[in-house]
Structure formats: structure tokens, C-alpha cells
């Protein structure tokens, strides 16, 4: 796995189970947490077998990112557009959550009848389930999608041409700067807790910039890394400008958000920090594998160097000393 | 926000299946086979190639590093492709391949649970016979690679006892009969402390049931493709097997009404795509029977499970024995056979009663001994009882204080994971 997947495996599994075996008489009440402090609470009761209640809590926004009623800009519209009649937003949401939705599974699109016989979920349905499972992308990515959509159609929305802060981690945000109608600059302040992680992430990012320059990636968004805040962040609040692993800047052009590319771009930009942190962990694991292999080979070398007599001392049968055969005893007494 | 305010991650790595999820839930989020499909072609190629081609070598190994799958996906992929090799990181309850294990955990955390390991405390489990070095290794991987803020390595039987917390009042004394896929342990626990010297292990576990079924099917000449036969045997075991009360009667029943007792298995040959069917008959009850009559499986080990449990209790301290007989808890997927607990209770009761009778006869009825209560407890969550116990334990506020923290690890090193307090009580 190189990229993180957008739909949450956990939600998808629960929803699919629900549809495949609707008669399984169990109440369900499950909590789950994802990276960057997105929490899910999914509830289902036997009394109302077609209704699933899904609550989502988002990371706490920093002061510079603006939330309306606990949700990012445009989230309600995005939910309505994505789920249509299946989801109904409950107001106010459950205590401690930002959004509560009532999902009516009987309203899912169905292809004529034969579903139970094949024991398989038809494609259209599956697509909508995947969409529900990627609720995080829909809600948190709503403002980003709005900006990128404008970019795709090359229109400038009013009052949308200054620096925009979007939350992506608890109390941390990344910044968007739409410039006229032809490009959007995205800037991430990268922060890590552990000192080893900082070093690895810094070199990972520098490597990323390097590999962007190779011939095959000419069409990829151009990216830059700098240890100090770039000029575009002039208007940002001071606490957003401290980052121990530098700043990454991507420039997105309309060709990156055409048609189907839009979804992927939104998700990749939204989870860039998680992506870097995943790969930092992977490379740590890889290094440990290498170290373990090295230690093994060194131990083998040591074992080979051991004199014969020492080996026989630790025999399996529990004898702690080497028994001399008659011949050896004889030669020993001679010497 | 502090890591202690988020639910802890509970991962129970078994030989056959791994159960993982968040503390506070009733069910694990995922139950997947503990298997990793590795693509070895890259790494082998890079090793043999010339040293000068550094960049290609570098790229190849970087790709291979991430090119692996776990769980059901790994099984699927290895069936249809030859470039992936299956590796089972845990054998007989012990981690054997640490590289594969580390990758397995990595996927569990990032792909399945999708959490940031720096944000959560972790509860992992180990078998009661794990060596201290292995525990250190686990700690090292968790703290070094994943940077977890806190780690607790729990002993499986203790968690299985804790799982009974909701079904009855919390009883931390009992014998845990843990029959997993790769190992069977009988572990006496007194007041939450493991009586280490009385742990009994037997070399018959779920895997042996599978192999026995495979052998029976093969000997009868059913048309199962050889490359698929182990998978079929596993599925048959999970879906159709049950425990009988008397083996002779059961044979008669099957012979009289074959239509009622014989099941059909339909599968698809992986190579040609043609479908095949085979009959499932006696192996439905003969499979689980190897716990009670091990001699039908092999001649290496012939002590039945109830006798082993009795021996285990008899070797425990005398003041705990009555309590131990009273609370025999089953855990692990291979205790899920229908009526397994009834059979176990009946056989064990027979042994205990016989002993009381003989001692009463020896004493000529001068002393009247109190009858001993034998009770085998079974509950519906047996399959992931260990995980559920972990989930309960990790949702208490005391859990966070019992954990080894990252700060401790940085200060003292991996040796903090070396000892486990639950073993200290009885020594």
C-alpha cells in the first residue's frame, strides 16, 4: 500500500455486513477513531432495521480555520450532493460529535431484485456504500473541493482570493492561496513530535522534491520545500508559522483537477500529512528489518569463530561437560 | 489532546487469526488471518544484481518494502499469482518471523484500523510461554518503529478470564483452556496471577483438527484438488464440525441416516475454474474428537484434554483447587465446536468423581468429603474472548497507569517489557 485509501474499511465492512445479512438480529454500537482524530460512532438497533445512525467528530479546528456550526464551509451541501435521499442530517448532532446522519438503507439504489440470490452487492449500491464510508473526505474536504472546482472551471469566486486556512489535524491547519483563475497554491507546515521522525520526514520531503524533477513526472503538480515559511504565508497568524520539519508547497493547475481527478486530488491533499507520517513509519520499519538482518549475519560470523570445545558444553541433552572418550583420555594423560 | 483520552488499540495476534479493534467496543473491528504475502522477487533480484547499479537496486528494494498484503487479501493474491509468498509470522503461539510480524502490524495499524500509532496506547497479547526476549522484541518494535505512547503486553489466559466479567461476577480465579489454531494451553490463574509452574500445553490444536480432516477426506478419495485441500478442510472445520457425546453411537446415527448428517461441499478449482463437490461425513464429529481421543490422530501424544486439565489442577496449590474446578473457562476459536463444553465438563466430572469414590473407599467412609463442583463455562464470545477481555481491561482508567510509557522506554530501554507482573504472585 503506497497511498492511504479514502473509504474507511471499518465503516464499509459494517455497512456491507448489514446489507448482506439483514436478518442477523444484533444491535450494534461501535466507536472507532482514525488518524488525525476523526472519530466515528455507528449505531444500529433491531427495532428499526433499515436505519443506521452515523456520527462523525472532526479534529478541533485552530482559530484561523473557520467552522460554521461545527462543520467546515460547504459541508452540508457536499453531504446532500453526495448521498441524496439516503442520508438525513440530524440537528443538533449527538453530544461530542460534529455531525450526525441517519442513513436509510432501504433507500439505497437497487438493481432489479436478484441481490439476495447472488449474495453480492450490486455495483451502484457498492459505489454509494464506498461513498458513505469516505464521509471524512466529503465533510473535511468540502471547502477544498469548492476551491478546486472553481479552479477546474476557471472561475473566481468572490472573496475567495485571499489566504484560506483549512483544518487537517487537531489544532493544525494547512493553507490555500487561489491566485487568479489559473492556479491554487497549497502550503503545509509539517510538524512531528519525535526527533527521529523530524529528521526522517525532512529527508523524505527533500527526496520527494528530487523525484518530482525526474522525467516521468512532468505533469505532476510542482512542489517545493523550504525550512522557513514561504512568502505566500505573509498574512497567516504567527503560531501557524512554526513547523519543525519545514514547509511544503504544491501548485495545483486546472489540469490536475479535471473530471475524475478531482476526487483523488482532494483526498491526497487533505491527507498529505498522514501520508508523510505513514511513510516515515514505514521507513523506520524498513531500517529495522535491515538492522535485524545485519545483526543475524554478525551473529553467524561470531558462531563460526567459536572454538569447537565451547559448542559441546551446551549440548541439548543437558550434559554440561565434554565426556572424554577412552582414546582422548589416553592422549590427554600422555601430554 | 492527550493520548490517554483516546481509546486504546487492542490487538490480539493469534496463530490463526488476528483480532483487532478499539477498547470499549464489544466486538473487534477486524478478524483477519495472521498471514503476510510478501513479494520476494524484488529483494532477491536486487541482491544478485551488480553492485554498480545502485539506483536500480535502491528503487527495487524500496518498492519491495511496501509490496505486501495481509489477511484475506494475502490469501486471495497468493492463489492467483506466483510472485507472492505466504509467510505465517506466528507459529504455535510464538512469533517466529519478526520482519513479517512488523509488516503485519504496520498494515493492521495503517490500513485496517487507520490510526496514527502516536495517538493511542496499545494493548498486545502473548501466550503464557513467551520468552522474555520475545517480549523485549515486541516492545522494541512498538516503541521504535511506531512510536506508541504506551504499551501493555497482556497474557492471553488472564484476559480470557477477564472476559467473563460481564457474564458473571468478576472471578479472577479459574483454569483457562485456550485452544487456538497453533497452540493449546491449560493455564491456572489464581486471583489474577498465573500459576506458572502448573501450565500444561498439549501439542494438539486447531491446526491439527484441520490436518486430520484433510487426511480423512483424502483417504476416502473425495475429489478435492490437492492445492485447495487445506483450505477446504479449514472451512469444513469452521462450518460443519461438532462434538459428539459417544463416538460409536454417532457412527451408527450417520450410517442410519446418511442424508441427514452428510453435508456437501462445493468449490471451484483455482487453476481451471471448474467446480467440484465432495461429501463431508464422519469427519464432522471425528475432527474435534482428537481432543478427547488423541490416539486416533497420532501416536506421539495420547493424553486426552480432560485428563490434562485434571492434572493441571491437581498440581496447583491445594487451597485453590476447588475454585479452579468451579471455573473452567474456554477461549480460542477451536473451542467453538458445538457442545464442546458439555463434553469437557462430563469427562472431567467423571475423572473427579472416580477419584472421590476411590478415596472414600480407602477411608472406609469415616470421612465424608464435600462434593466437588465441576463447571465448564462457555460464552458466546469465546472466539475472541481474549480480545474482549483486553477491551474491558484497556477501557478502565487504571490501564493507562499500568502501561509501559515511551518515556520509560527511552530511559531504560527494552528491558522494561521483560517481566510481566502477573507471573510474580506465586514465585
Automatic annotation (TrEMBL), chain A:
Which first-to-last residue range defines the signal peptide?
none
What's the family?
A: Belongs to the ARPC2 family.
Q: What is this protein called?
A: Arp2/3 complex 34 kDa subunit
Q: Where in the cell is it found?
A: Cell projection; Cytoplasm, Cytoskeleton
Give an example GO molecular function: actin filament binding
Instruction: Show the coiled coil region(s).
Output: none
Transmembrane spans: none
Asked whether the keyword Oxidoreductase is assigned, the reply is no
**One GO-annotated biological process of the protein:** actin filament polymerization
Q: In which residue ranges is the amino acid composition biased (Basic and acidic residues)?
A: 303-313
Q: What does this protein do?
A: Functions as actin-binding component of the Arp2/3 complex which is involved in regulation of actin polymerization and together with an activating nucleation-promoting factor (NPF) mediates the formation of branched actin networks. Seems to contact the mother actin filament. Arp2/3 complex plays a critical role in the control of cell morphogenesis via the modulation of cell polarity development.
| Region spans: Disordered | 303-335
Organism domain of life = Eukaryota
UniProtKB/TrEMBL annotation, chain B:
| GO terms for MF | actin binding; ATP binding
Q: What SMART domains does the annotation carry?
A: ACTIN (SM00268)
What does the record list as coiled-coil region(s)? none
RNA-binding in keyword set: no
UniProtKB keywords: Actin-binding, ATP-binding, Cytoplasm, Cytoskeleton, Nucleotide-binding
Matches recorded under InterPro entries: Actin, ATPase_NBD
- Compartment(s) where it occurs, according to its Swiss-Prot or TrEMBL record: Cytoplasm, Cytoskeleton
The cross-references to SUPFAM superfamilies, in alphabetical order and at most eight, read:
Actin-like ATPase domain (SSF53067)
Q: Which GO terms describe its cellular component?
A: cytoskeleton
What superkingdom heads the lineage? Eukaryota
Q: How does it assemble?
A: Component of the Arp2/3 complex.
- What is this protein for, i.e. what is its function? Functions as ATP-binding component of the Arp2/3 complex which is involved in regulation of actin polymerization and together with an activating nucleation-promoting factor (NPF) mediates the formation of branched actin networks. Seems to contact the pointed end of the daughter actin filament. Regulates the directionality of cell expansion by regulating the actin organization, and thus the microtubules distribution and the fusion of small vacuoles.
Entry similarity comment: Belongs to the actin family. ARP3 subfamily.
Its name, as the record gives it, is Actin-related protein 3
